[in-house]
Design brief:
Layout (H helix, E strand, L loop, with lengths): L9 E4 L3 H10 L6 E4 L2 H6 L3 H9 L5 E3 L8 H13 L4 E6 L1 H15 L10 E2 L9 E5 L11 E6 L4 E6 L7 E4 L9 H20 L5 H23 L4 H21 L3 H13 L3 H17 L3 H10 L9 H18 L17 H9 L12 H11 L1
Parallel strand pairs: 1-9, 2-3, 2-4, 4-6, 5-8, 6-9
Antiparallel strand pairs: 7-8
Helix pairs in contact: 4-5, 6-7, 6-8, 6-10, 7-8, 9-10, 9-13, 10-12, 10-14, 11-12
The protein binds fe (ii) ion (FE2).
Fe (ii) ion binds next to helix 6 and helix 10.
Length: 383
Protein backbone atom coordinates (compact mmCIF):
# COMPACT_ATOMS: atom_id res chain seq x y z
CA UNK A 1 0.00 0.00 0.00
CA UNK A 2 1.23 3.51 -0.77
CA UNK A 3 0.07 6.74 0.85
CA UNK A 4 0.17 9.87 -1.28
CA UNK A 5 0.58 13.36 0.17
CA UNK A 6 0.29 16.07 -2.50
CA UNK A 7 1.66 19.47 -1.51
CA UNK A 8 3.08 22.70 -2.99
CA UNK A 9 6.84 22.62 -3.53
CA UNK A 10 7.35 25.45 -1.05
CA UNK A 11 5.04 26.63 1.73
CA UNK A 12 5.83 29.90 3.49
CA UNK A 13 4.03 30.68 6.75
CA UNK A 14 4.41 33.32 9.46
CA UNK A 15 4.59 37.06 9.83
CA UNK A 16 7.48 37.45 7.36
CA UNK A 17 6.12 35.07 4.75
CA UNK A 18 5.52 37.80 2.14
CA UNK A 19 9.15 38.95 2.32
CA UNK A 20 10.29 35.34 2.12
CA UNK A 21 8.18 34.96 -1.03
CA UNK A 22 9.95 37.80 -2.83
CA UNK A 23 13.27 36.15 -1.94
CA UNK A 24 12.03 32.88 -3.44
CA UNK A 25 10.76 34.59 -6.60
CA UNK A 26 14.18 36.13 -7.21
CA UNK A 27 15.40 32.60 -7.88
CA UNK A 28 12.80 32.08 -10.63
CA UNK A 29 13.22 33.13 -14.28
CA UNK A 30 9.74 34.75 -14.42
CA UNK A 31 9.69 38.54 -14.05
CA UNK A 32 6.21 39.63 -15.14
CA UNK A 33 3.60 38.22 -12.75
CA UNK A 34 -0.14 38.58 -13.16
CA UNK A 35 -1.64 39.23 -9.73
CA UNK A 36 -5.17 37.79 -9.71
CA UNK A 37 -7.19 39.42 -6.96
CA UNK A 38 -10.33 41.28 -5.81
CA UNK A 39 -11.03 45.00 -5.96
CA UNK A 40 -12.01 45.14 -2.29
CA UNK A 41 -8.58 43.87 -1.26
CA UNK A 42 -6.88 46.43 -3.50
CA UNK A 43 -8.88 49.17 -1.81
CA UNK A 44 -7.69 47.93 1.58
CA UNK A 45 -4.09 48.24 0.37
CA UNK A 46 -3.32 44.63 1.22
CA UNK A 47 -1.10 44.26 -1.85
CA UNK A 48 0.99 47.37 -1.27
CA UNK A 49 3.93 45.65 0.46
CA UNK A 50 4.08 42.83 -2.08
CA UNK A 51 3.88 45.13 -5.10
CA UNK A 52 6.51 47.57 -3.84
CA UNK A 53 8.87 44.74 -2.91
CA UNK A 54 8.40 43.07 -6.28
CA UNK A 55 9.06 46.35 -8.09
CA UNK A 56 12.16 47.00 -5.98
CA UNK A 57 13.49 43.61 -7.08
CA UNK A 58 12.94 44.38 -10.78
CA UNK A 59 9.61 42.60 -11.30
CA UNK A 60 6.88 44.18 -13.39
CA UNK A 61 3.59 43.02 -11.83
CA UNK A 62 0.26 43.42 -13.64
CA UNK A 63 -2.95 43.44 -11.62
CA UNK A 64 -6.25 41.79 -12.54
CA UNK A 65 -8.70 42.75 -9.80
CA UNK A 66 -11.91 41.46 -11.39
CA UNK A 67 -12.37 38.40 -9.16
CA UNK A 68 -15.77 38.10 -7.48
CA UNK A 69 -17.08 35.71 -4.81
CA UNK A 70 -18.01 32.37 -6.37
CA UNK A 71 -15.96 33.20 -9.52
CA UNK A 72 -17.45 32.33 -12.88
CA UNK A 73 -16.11 31.09 -16.21
CA UNK A 74 -16.37 34.72 -17.44
CA UNK A 75 -14.07 35.93 -14.65
CA UNK A 76 -11.52 33.27 -15.59
CA UNK A 77 -11.72 34.33 -19.28
CA UNK A 78 -11.09 37.99 -18.37
CA UNK A 79 -8.12 37.10 -16.17
CA UNK A 80 -6.66 34.91 -18.92
CA UNK A 81 -7.05 37.72 -21.47
CA UNK A 82 -5.23 40.08 -19.09
CA UNK A 83 -2.34 37.57 -18.75
CA UNK A 84 -2.04 37.31 -22.52
CA UNK A 85 -2.41 41.03 -23.29
CA UNK A 86 0.40 41.91 -20.89
CA UNK A 87 2.71 39.05 -21.84
CA UNK A 88 2.84 37.83 -18.25
CA UNK A 89 5.02 34.86 -17.38
CA UNK A 90 3.75 33.70 -13.97
CA UNK A 91 0.62 34.02 -11.83
CA UNK A 92 0.08 35.13 -8.25
CA UNK A 93 -3.37 34.41 -6.80
CA UNK A 94 -3.86 36.88 -3.93
CA UNK A 95 -6.99 36.67 -1.78
CA UNK A 96 -9.44 34.08 -0.57
CA UNK A 97 -10.50 30.91 -2.35
CA UNK A 98 -12.13 32.85 -5.19
CA UNK A 99 -8.94 34.66 -6.24
CA UNK A 100 -6.75 31.60 -5.80
CA UNK A 101 -9.16 29.29 -7.66
CA UNK A 102 -9.34 31.77 -10.54
CA UNK A 103 -5.52 31.91 -10.66
CA UNK A 104 -5.29 28.11 -10.66
CA UNK A 105 -7.70 27.74 -13.57
CA UNK A 106 -5.98 30.52 -15.55
CA UNK A 107 -2.76 28.55 -15.17
CA UNK A 108 -4.49 25.42 -16.48
CA UNK A 109 -5.92 27.23 -19.52
CA UNK A 110 -2.56 28.79 -20.43
CA UNK A 111 -1.00 25.33 -20.63
CA UNK A 112 -4.03 23.77 -22.36
CA UNK A 113 -5.17 26.39 -24.91
CA UNK A 114 -7.44 23.91 -26.71
CA UNK A 115 -9.62 23.61 -23.59
CA UNK A 116 -12.37 25.72 -21.99
CA UNK A 117 -13.11 25.81 -18.27
CA UNK A 118 -15.89 23.23 -18.49
CA UNK A 119 -13.53 20.79 -20.23
CA UNK A 120 -11.48 20.74 -17.03
CA UNK A 121 -14.41 19.79 -14.76
CA UNK A 122 -13.92 16.61 -12.75
CA UNK A 123 -10.79 14.74 -11.80
CA UNK A 124 -7.59 14.76 -13.86
CA UNK A 125 -8.59 16.65 -17.02
CA UNK A 126 -5.94 19.40 -16.95
CA UNK A 127 -3.14 17.39 -18.62
CA UNK A 128 -0.35 19.97 -18.98
CA UNK A 129 1.13 22.04 -16.12
CA UNK A 130 1.18 25.80 -16.74
CA UNK A 131 3.49 28.63 -15.65
CA UNK A 132 4.75 29.23 -12.11
CA UNK A 133 1.81 29.68 -9.74
CA UNK A 134 1.99 31.34 -6.33
CA UNK A 135 -1.07 31.49 -4.07
CA UNK A 136 -1.18 33.97 -1.20
CA UNK A 137 -4.08 33.39 1.16
CA UNK A 138 -5.83 36.34 2.83
CA UNK A 139 -8.44 34.21 4.60
CA UNK A 140 -8.07 31.20 6.86
CA UNK A 141 -10.23 28.51 5.45
CA UNK A 142 -10.24 27.43 1.85
CA UNK A 143 -6.63 26.18 1.83
CA UNK A 144 -6.73 26.81 -1.91
CA UNK A 145 -3.02 27.67 -1.67
CA UNK A 146 -2.32 24.03 -0.78
CA UNK A 147 -4.75 22.03 -2.84
CA UNK A 148 -5.35 20.56 -6.28
CA UNK A 149 -8.99 21.81 -6.29
CA UNK A 150 -10.65 24.81 -7.90
CA UNK A 151 -14.35 25.62 -8.01
CA UNK A 152 -15.70 27.82 -10.82
CA UNK A 153 -19.36 28.59 -11.52
CA UNK A 154 -20.64 27.64 -14.97
CA UNK A 155 -22.82 30.61 -15.92
CA UNK A 156 -24.70 28.62 -18.53
CA UNK A 157 -25.74 25.71 -16.31
CA UNK A 158 -25.70 27.57 -12.95
CA UNK A 159 -23.63 24.85 -11.34
CA UNK A 160 -20.28 24.89 -9.62
CA UNK A 161 -17.66 23.03 -11.60
CA UNK A 162 -15.19 21.25 -9.35
CA UNK A 163 -11.80 20.86 -11.00
CA UNK A 164 -9.40 18.47 -9.29
CA UNK A 165 -5.93 17.94 -10.72
CA UNK A 166 -2.41 17.88 -9.28
CA UNK A 167 -1.41 20.19 -12.18
CA UNK A 168 -3.12 23.09 -10.39
CA UNK A 169 -1.40 22.69 -7.01
CA UNK A 170 0.44 26.00 -6.54
CA UNK A 171 4.23 25.87 -6.68
CA UNK A 172 4.50 28.26 -3.73
CA UNK A 173 1.88 28.66 -0.95
CA UNK A 174 1.97 31.72 1.30
CA UNK A 175 0.20 32.21 4.63
CA UNK A 176 1.10 35.50 6.27
CA UNK A 177 -1.20 36.16 9.27
CA UNK A 178 -0.61 39.91 9.10
CA UNK A 179 -2.77 39.90 5.95
CA UNK A 180 -5.70 38.60 8.01
CA UNK A 181 -5.87 41.28 10.69
CA UNK A 182 -8.59 43.26 8.91
CA UNK A 183 -10.73 40.26 7.92
CA UNK A 184 -14.32 40.89 9.14
CA UNK A 185 -15.72 38.62 11.87
CA UNK A 186 -18.37 37.00 9.64
CA UNK A 187 -15.80 36.10 6.96
CA UNK A 188 -13.41 34.82 9.64
CA UNK A 189 -16.20 32.62 11.03
CA UNK A 190 -17.34 31.28 7.66
CA UNK A 191 -13.86 30.52 6.34
CA UNK A 192 -12.81 29.02 9.68
CA UNK A 193 -15.81 26.67 9.64
CA UNK A 194 -14.90 25.75 6.06
CA UNK A 195 -11.46 24.72 7.35
CA UNK A 196 -13.03 22.68 10.15
CA UNK A 197 -15.23 20.96 7.55
CA UNK A 198 -12.13 20.12 5.49
CA UNK A 199 -10.45 18.52 8.48
CA UNK A 200 -13.51 16.53 9.56
CA UNK A 201 -14.41 15.33 6.07
CA UNK A 202 -10.78 14.29 5.51
CA UNK A 203 -10.68 12.43 8.83
CA UNK A 204 -13.79 10.34 8.09
CA UNK A 205 -13.05 9.95 4.35
CA UNK A 206 -12.61 6.54 2.73
CA UNK A 207 -9.21 7.75 1.42
CA UNK A 208 -7.87 8.86 4.84
CA UNK A 209 -4.45 7.48 5.75
CA UNK A 210 -2.09 7.88 8.72
CA UNK A 211 -0.41 11.03 7.35
CA UNK A 212 -3.72 12.78 6.63
CA UNK A 213 -5.17 11.60 9.96
CA UNK A 214 -2.47 13.37 11.96
CA UNK A 215 -2.85 16.63 10.12
CA UNK A 216 -6.68 16.45 10.22
CA UNK A 217 -6.83 15.90 13.99
CA UNK A 218 -4.22 18.61 14.62
CA UNK A 219 -6.27 20.99 12.44
CA UNK A 220 -9.49 20.21 14.35
CA UNK A 221 -7.71 20.86 17.65
CA UNK A 222 -6.17 24.16 16.55
CA UNK A 223 -9.27 25.52 14.79
CA UNK A 224 -11.62 24.73 17.71
CA UNK A 225 -9.40 26.76 20.06
CA UNK A 226 -8.35 29.60 17.77
CA UNK A 227 -11.46 30.34 15.72
CA UNK A 228 -13.60 31.91 18.50
CA UNK A 229 -10.62 34.11 19.46
CA UNK A 230 -10.03 35.24 15.87
CA UNK A 231 -13.74 35.99 15.41
CA UNK A 232 -13.97 37.90 18.69
CA UNK A 233 -10.84 39.98 18.11
CA UNK A 234 -9.62 40.16 14.53
CA UNK A 235 -6.43 41.91 15.67
CA UNK A 236 -5.35 38.91 17.76
CA UNK A 237 -2.23 38.04 15.75
CA UNK A 238 -1.57 34.82 17.70
CA UNK A 239 -5.10 33.54 16.96
CA UNK A 240 -4.74 34.57 13.31
CA UNK A 241 -1.44 32.71 13.05
CA UNK A 242 -2.96 29.60 14.67
CA UNK A 243 -5.83 29.75 12.20
CA UNK A 244 -3.45 29.97 9.23
CA UNK A 245 -1.69 26.86 10.58
CA UNK A 246 -4.97 25.05 11.32
CA UNK A 247 -6.46 25.68 7.92
CA UNK A 248 -3.16 24.73 6.24
CA UNK A 249 -3.08 21.39 8.08
CA UNK A 250 -6.72 20.82 7.11
CA UNK A 251 -5.76 21.56 3.50
CA UNK A 252 -2.86 19.08 3.68
CA UNK A 253 -5.31 16.44 4.94
CA UNK A 254 -8.13 16.92 2.47
CA UNK A 255 -5.91 17.44 -0.54
CA UNK A 256 -4.88 13.81 -0.22
CA UNK A 257 -7.80 12.22 1.69
CA UNK A 258 -10.56 14.02 -0.21
CA UNK A 259 -13.75 15.56 1.12
CA UNK A 260 -17.32 14.30 1.36
CA UNK A 261 -20.99 15.06 1.06
CA UNK A 262 -20.91 18.25 3.14
CA UNK A 263 -19.06 19.87 0.25
CA UNK A 264 -21.17 18.15 -2.42
CA UNK A 265 -24.35 19.49 -0.84
CA UNK A 266 -22.91 22.91 0.08
CA UNK A 267 -21.74 23.65 -3.47
CA UNK A 268 -25.34 23.78 -4.73
CA UNK A 269 -26.86 26.67 -2.68
CA UNK A 270 -23.52 28.41 -3.18
CA UNK A 271 -23.98 28.19 -6.96
CA UNK A 272 -27.68 29.04 -7.26
CA UNK A 273 -27.94 31.68 -4.52
CA UNK A 274 -24.34 32.93 -4.34
CA UNK A 275 -24.13 32.08 -0.63
CA UNK A 276 -20.77 31.97 1.19
CA UNK A 277 -19.17 28.54 0.87
CA UNK A 278 -18.14 28.37 4.53
CA UNK A 279 -21.61 29.24 5.80
CA UNK A 280 -23.25 26.52 3.64
CA UNK A 281 -20.66 24.02 4.91
CA UNK A 282 -21.09 25.05 8.53
CA UNK A 283 -24.87 24.60 8.34
CA UNK A 284 -24.64 21.20 6.65
CA UNK A 285 -21.68 19.85 8.66
CA UNK A 286 -23.49 18.58 11.81
CA UNK A 287 -26.29 17.12 9.67
CA UNK A 288 -23.90 15.09 7.52
CA UNK A 289 -21.85 14.12 10.59
CA UNK A 290 -25.00 12.62 12.06
CA UNK A 291 -25.62 10.84 8.72
CA UNK A 292 -22.05 9.43 8.74
CA UNK A 293 -21.79 8.74 12.46
CA UNK A 294 -22.98 5.13 12.29
CA UNK A 295 -20.22 4.16 9.82
CA UNK A 296 -17.45 6.18 11.52
CA UNK A 297 -18.41 6.06 15.22
CA UNK A 298 -14.86 5.73 16.57
CA UNK A 299 -13.60 8.49 14.31
CA UNK A 300 -16.29 10.88 15.51
CA UNK A 301 -15.33 9.99 19.09
CA UNK A 302 -11.74 11.01 18.18
CA UNK A 303 -13.08 14.27 16.75
CA UNK A 304 -14.90 15.00 20.03
CA UNK A 305 -11.63 14.55 21.87
CA UNK A 306 -9.76 16.77 19.44
CA UNK A 307 -12.44 19.43 19.97
CA UNK A 308 -11.68 19.39 23.69
CA UNK A 309 -14.59 17.25 24.91
CA UNK A 310 -13.74 15.13 27.95
CA UNK A 311 -14.80 11.73 26.61
CA UNK A 312 -13.22 9.61 29.36
CA UNK A 313 -16.53 8.60 30.95
CA UNK A 314 -18.36 8.23 27.65
CA UNK A 315 -18.75 5.14 25.52
CA UNK A 316 -17.98 5.33 21.80
CA UNK A 317 -21.59 6.19 20.86
CA UNK A 318 -21.84 8.99 23.41
CA UNK A 319 -18.46 10.42 22.42
CA UNK A 320 -19.38 10.39 18.71
CA UNK A 321 -22.59 12.29 19.49
CA UNK A 322 -20.58 14.73 21.61
CA UNK A 323 -18.54 15.63 18.50
CA UNK A 324 -21.69 16.77 16.74
CA UNK A 325 -22.78 18.80 19.79
CA UNK A 326 -19.33 20.42 19.87
CA UNK A 327 -19.58 21.35 16.17
CA UNK A 328 -23.02 22.91 16.72
CA UNK A 329 -21.70 24.80 19.74
CA UNK A 330 -18.69 26.18 17.83
CA UNK A 331 -20.92 27.22 14.92
CA UNK A 332 -23.25 29.08 17.27
CA UNK A 333 -20.34 30.65 19.15
CA UNK A 334 -18.93 32.19 15.94
CA UNK A 335 -22.33 33.39 14.70
CA UNK A 336 -23.16 30.99 11.86
CA UNK A 337 -26.89 31.21 10.91
CA UNK A 338 -28.91 28.29 12.28
CA UNK A 339 -30.13 27.06 8.88
CA UNK A 340 -30.42 27.76 5.16
CA UNK A 341 -33.91 29.18 5.87
CA UNK A 342 -32.23 32.11 7.60
CA UNK A 343 -30.52 32.82 4.24
CA UNK A 344 -33.86 33.08 2.40
CA UNK A 345 -33.68 29.53 1.02
CA UNK A 346 -37.07 27.88 0.55
CA UNK A 347 -38.11 24.25 0.32
CA UNK A 348 -38.84 24.75 -3.39
CA UNK A 349 -35.15 25.58 -4.00
CA UNK A 350 -34.02 22.11 -2.98
CA UNK A 351 -35.19 20.00 -5.91
CA UNK A 352 -32.77 21.43 -8.46
CA UNK A 353 -29.79 20.84 -6.15
CA UNK A 354 -30.24 17.09 -5.86
CA UNK A 355 -28.85 15.95 -9.25
CA UNK A 356 -25.74 18.20 -9.14
CA UNK A 357 -25.12 17.20 -5.50
CA UNK A 358 -25.22 13.54 -6.53
CA UNK A 359 -22.75 14.24 -9.36
CA UNK A 360 -20.37 16.43 -7.33
CA UNK A 361 -16.93 14.73 -7.23
CA UNK A 362 -16.35 15.58 -3.54
CA UNK A 363 -18.76 12.77 -2.66
CA UNK A 364 -16.34 10.22 -4.15
CA UNK A 365 -14.53 9.78 -0.84
CA UNK A 366 -17.59 10.09 1.42
CA UNK A 367 -17.78 7.36 4.05
CA UNK A 368 -21.45 6.74 3.30
CA UNK A 369 -23.12 7.33 -0.06
CA UNK A 370 -26.56 8.89 -0.27
CA UNK A 371 -29.54 8.36 -2.57
CA UNK A 372 -31.47 11.25 -4.11
CA UNK A 373 -34.15 10.73 -1.47
CA UNK A 374 -31.60 10.90 1.36
CA UNK A 375 -30.04 14.05 -0.11
CA UNK A 376 -33.48 15.69 -0.26
CA UNK A 377 -34.05 14.77 3.40
CA UNK A 378 -30.60 16.12 4.40
CA UNK A 379 -31.31 19.45 2.67
CA UNK A 380 -34.71 19.63 4.40
CA UNK A 381 -32.97 19.21 7.76
CA UNK A 382 -30.68 22.10 6.87
CA UNK A 383 -33.51 24.57 6.22
FE1 LIG B 1 -14.33 24.04 1.40
Amino acid sequence: MAFALCLPQISLSGTDALCALVEQLRLQPARNPLIVTEKALMQLGLHDTLISQLQMQGFDPVIFDGVIANPTDHVVAHALACYQQHYCDCIIGFGGGSAMDTAKVVRALIANPDKQVHDLEGIGHVQKIGPLLVCISTTSGTAAEVTSNAVITDTRRHVKMVIIDSAIIPDIAVNDPTLLLGLPADVTAATGMDALTHAIEAYVSTAAHPLTDHSALAAIKIITKALPKAVQNGQDLAAREQMTNGQFLAGMAFNSAGLGLVHSLAHQPGATHNLPHGVCNAILLPILCEFNREVRTQRFADIAQAMGVDTQKMDEQQASKAAIAAIRHLSEQVGIPSGLGALAIKETDIERWIAPALGDPCGGSAPRSATAEQIRALYLQAL
